[in-house]
Structures are given as C-alpha cells and as structure tokens.
Amino acid sequence: MAALVWVQRTASLRKPGSLLHSRSPALRFRCRFHVGKKSCSTELLHRSVVPSMHYQKSLPRLPIPKLEDSIRRYLAAHETSSPLLLTTTEKVAQDFLNGEGRQLHEELVLMDKNNKHTSYISAPWFDMYLSARDSLVLNFNPFMSFNPDPRQEYNDPLVRSTNMVCSAVRFMKTLRAGLLEPEVFHLNPAKSDTAKFKNFIRWVPSSLSWYGAYMVNAYPLDMSQYFRLFNSTRIPKQGRDELFTNEKGRHLLVLRKGNMYVFDVVDGDGNMVKPVEVQAHLKYIMSDPAPEAEFPLGVLTSENRDVWAGLREKLIAAGNAEDLQTLDSALFCLCLDEEIMKDHIHISHNMLHGDGCNRWYDKSFSIIMAKDGQAAINFEHAWGDGVAVLRFQNEVFKDTTERPLVHPGSTPAADSASAVRRLDFKLTGELKDGIRKAKQNFDSAVSKLTIDAMEFKKGGKEQLKKSKLSPDAVAQLAFQMGFLRQYGQTVATYESCSTAAFKHGRTETIRPATVHTKRCSQAFVQQPGAHSVEQLRGMLHECSKYHGQLTKEAAMGQGFDRHLFALRYLATSQGRPLHSLYTDPAYAAINHNVLSTSTLTSPAVNLGGFAPVVPDGFGVGYGVHDDWIGCNVSSYPARNVHEFLQCVHKSLEDIFSVLEGKPLS
C-alpha cells in the first residue's frame, strides 16, 4: 500500500515528463501565537504575500466519473487478458452497469452533493488505511532520503540534526501563521509566479481566488493534509485506528539506541528555542552513555495493529498514559542512528525499516539521521499522500543548505540536564514479552526483503523529449519489457497519481499495462528481428500517446479505480452483498499489483522506496532525470530483483538504440 502514497505527480497540469481531508478547525491558522515576539528573520522560512490557505475554499471538487466511462476504462485495462476471460468480465461489467452499479452510483452522487466540503473518496480512503490491521512497516510507510548538504562539514550529524530540527520548526511556524507559500502548480510562471500577480490575487476573495489563478494558467493544489504534519500520531485501536493531533505540544521526540527523550523546541510564547540550545540538547542525547534499551518500546509500533492496540491498553493500565500522550503530541520524531551507511542499498533498508527499535512508526513523520549525516524521512501513510511531506522535505533541505542556523564552529549552550527528559516506561512481564515477540516478528518480516538499485546512464528526459516521447511512459514501458523478458508475461501494474488539484483529493491509479505496451514489449523482447526501426518507433509513440492520455485522465479524477472502490465501499457499509463484478477473478487480478510503481525527482531527494504490495511483487521507485534514469526496487523471495533490474536496463538500452536508428539484434 505504500505505493499509494509515494510521491505523486499532478500530471495533467504540467508538460509531459516533468515531476512533481477531512475538515478541521486546525485549518484555521492563528498568526499571533505562533509567530511570537522575536524578529521573524530566524522564526519563519518566509512571509508569503498570499495566505497559505487562500485558495482552499475555492478549489474545484473532485469529480465522480460517469459510470459508463469507469466501466469502459476498467474493461480497457483488461484488454491484455485472454479473450475468454475478457468475454466473461465484459458480461459481468455490463450487468453491473445496468443494474446494481447504477443504483450505487446514483447514491454516491447524492451523498457527494450533500457533502460539498470534501471529496467522495476522502472518508473511504481514510477508512481503508485506518482499518488495515497489517504492520505499518513495509506495508505502508515509505521513505525519502535527503541529498547530502553540498558543504561536507555541514553533514556532521550534530550540525545537520540541529539545522533540520530548526528548519522543521520554522516550517511549522510559517505554516501555522498562514505565511507559507500556497502550493501552486504554475504552467506559465512568468505570469503567475510573480510579485505583481501575488499582490493582485491576495485581494481576491478566497471563494473566488482559484478562478483568478486559473485565468493565468496556475493551478492551486489542496493543502488540507498539511495540518497533520506536526503534533500528529496514528493511535492503534481495535478494528480501526485513529489519527490524533494536538497542536499544543511544543516538544520534540528523539530516539537513540531505542531510548526516548523529549525537550521543548518552542517556548511558552510560541518562539523557537535558540538553535545553540537545540544543538546542546541533541549533543547531550548523543553523548548519553545509556546502553541500548533492553526493551525498546518503539518496536511495538511495527506490530499488527490489533496486537499493538491491546498492548497499548496494557501500557496505559501500567501507569504510562502521560508518557504515551507525550509521544503522541510531539511535534515530530528525530531518530539518531548509530550506524554508518555503506551504500544506497544500506540507506534504503535503514530508512525504510531500520532495526525496529529506534523508530516510532506511528508518528506522522520521522527524520532519521545516521552516524555519517545521511538523513531521510519515513512517514505514516494514513493522514496524507506524500504531497505535504515532499513540500516539507524540499523546504527543509533548501533552508538547511542556504540558511543554516548552526555551523561546524557553533558552540552548544544550554543546561541540557534540566531541559532534556528521558522517558522511562513501566513495563510488566506481559509487556516485555510483547516487545520480544514484536521484535521477532519484525526481524522475520524484514529478513525477507531484498532491495537493489539501477542507474541507466545512456539517456534520459532530454533525449526522450527530443524524440517527442513521454519520459514516464518510456520508464513504465521498460518495466513491462523487463518483466516480460524475465518471466515471459505482463502483469497488473499500479502507478500512483495525485488528485491534489481538487479539494480533498487523494490519489488515482494510472494503469500502465495496456494493449499498446504489451504489443510493443512483445515486439522488442520476443520478436526483435521482425520489425523495422520505423515500426518499433511507431509502437513507442503509440505507448507514449496512450500513457499520456491515461495520466491526464487520472490527474483529472477520471480513472476507474477510485470510483469502483467508492461504490464497493458504499455497498459494504450498507451491508449489501457484493456484485459479481467484485468477486470476478479479473477484479482480483487487476488489483493484485505485481508491479507497484511511483516516481519522484527533487533537488532535495537522493532516493526513495517502499516494499512490494503483494508477496510476489516488486516495489518500484524511479526517477527520470535529464540524462539518466534511476530505479530503486524491492522484492520478497518470490521474485529476483537483481535479475529484474538487469532486464529493465536491457530494455532501456534497446529503446534508446531504436531511437538512435539502430535495429535490434
């Protein structure tokens, strides 16, 4: 499921190839308290002329597709199936369209009209995540690692941790003051991303502001998830978890060697604690001679959610309620690891799951800092879809590299012994047994995961654009070709796409495996000498054109996956028996996503990753850069990730050879 949230693209609002919930009073930001009395030069990231939530009220609503369109798209995604299976699926889908599906659709449309403050997918999507009982580790939480600071001396873990904490606090204060730049996708930045336009649009009423941006080809994005970034935690409950946010928390949670520490990073007046004091507190924790925790509580957050919910109740009964509230209300979590990262593969394993002991996976996000200054964000998925996290990561990287508040020569200054508190939980024998069991389960799960990476250096986005091909379409085609080369077939494939252009939008699915990619893959892999270079190029362009159409439709809320999911959710919530559409083997097959993919490029991000969503799948994180293409892929024992990446590399070589006019051998 992690791929659902991996970082998405607002595809229809950009040129091909470039990358990119519920109502709450927390969205009503209060400037006074959070700005405090100090000068804003060190308190805020910036002061946006346009208020952070200026566009939120007038964002367009996520459309519910026509049922006929969703069924047509659903059947189109099955065209790679055998004719016999496709005939059965067509009959079932037609029956759904003309009967129960029509009734469910009309009820969904009516519910949507009565809930104009949100989207039709928001509540069901929250419920899906929060009701899932699987461990958050590998199944949900993804990671994104930071690029190193370009100045090597600033990668010292104490210096970098301090600067990242301070920049994170600045981001929080800027957001809550309503002074964070709104998230806007600019198709013509020369007109819309200017001081002149911003000074104009700030005076347009928020109920109309989106239309003003639209007139200059700018598309504001939904920011309703941002308030969950800080002071937020997923609380385990029997059957269904809860999201908890308490903006009154002023402290940071720090983990080291499985031990937990807290100290305030915001004072009682709402001002950020002095950076040299933050540095002193972190140095104090890093120097603590305490051994590794014998019973690291954090590993419980990696357990099955019902098991963890039961153990949490036992923790409360043992007298730990106050300390648990301290964990839940912390601004965020900083994990100080003792390991030095050996390579990209080690980084991926450590930042995706680690050893389970020095993490609190339930926090909305954690910044992980290795002994050598390698840093990453691991985030819980239920509250949001990565858009807010990527914005946060980009801002923190920019701020720490351009305006660091402490330096290699800075002298820490504070009475840390009185400011830093180490949490000491009361553990019964039953709780200690629960921690041991959780660690065993964790070790067993992560031992099965393999991660490998590949860099294709013979071409990238620039060359593909010159050939008038979508870079994302070519990457997805390479995955189809690679799987066909390795296993002799094509399989269900998932690519996440953000619908943040709409109020309370979440994600939609792009289905990259199509009749076009199947035909092209077979031509390249199984019939390399049967087609001319011109014919192969023509197939590449067909794949690119159709993938571009699918991407645009998904970004505009016109896929079929979320619509059919919402109809199924509605039927289940009313206790109705499921229509045969949902019990048809074809529906199970297309939702058994052997290839789960998501793409990302950002100046702040080095690499990102997630685990497969099915036992016999691959988790494919990838980025198409100007002159190279990178993949970071995970698998379980049922698949060979090393061989898969070799096959993907070979596929890219063949594609670029054809683009250069060379025939396949």
UniProtKB/TrEMBL annotation:
Localization recorded for this chain is: Mitochondrion inner membrane
This enzyme's EC code(s): 2.3.1.21
UniProt entry keywords in alphabetical sequence: Acyltransferase, Fatty acid metabolism, Lipid metabolism, Membrane, Mitochondrion, Mitochondrion inner membrane, Transferase, Transit peptide, Transport
The pathway this protein participates in, as annotated, is: Lipid metabolism; fatty acid beta-oxidation
Record's bilayer topology term? Peripheral membrane protein
Q: Which reaction does it catalyse?
A: (R)-carnitine + (9Z)-octadecenoyl-CoA = O-(9Z)-octadecenoyl-(R)-carnitine + CoA; octanoyl-CoA + (R)-carnitine = O-octanoyl-(R)-carnitine + CoA; dodecanoyl-CoA + (R)-carnitine = O-dodecanoyl-R-carnitine + CoA; (R)-carnitine + octadecanoyl-CoA = O-octadecanoyl-(R)-carnitine + CoA
> What is one term from the GO cellular component aspect held by the record?
mitochondrial inner membrane
Do you know which Pfam families this protein is assigned to?
Answer: Carn_acyltransf
Which enzyme class?
Answer: transferase
Where do the catalytic residues lie?
Answer: 381 (proton acceptor)
What biological-process GO terms show up in the record?
A: fatty acid beta-oxidation; long-chain fatty acid transport
Transport listed as a keyword: yes
GO MF term list: carnitine O-palmitoyltransferase activity
Domain named Choline/carnitine acyltransferase: residues = 62-649
Say what the protein does.
Involved in the intramitochondrial synthesis of acylcarnitines from accumulated acyl-CoA metabolites. Reconverts acylcarnitines back into the respective acyl-CoA esters that can then undergo beta-oxidation, an essential step for the mitochondrial uptake of long-chain fatty acids and their subsequent beta-oxidation in the mitochondrion. Active with medium (C8-C12) and long-chain (C14-C18) acyl-CoA esters.
Record family assignment: Belongs to the carnitine/choline acetyltransferase family.
Q: What is this protein called?
A: Carnitine O-palmitoyltransferase 2, mitochondrial
Provide the species name: Oryzias javanicus (Javanese ricefish)
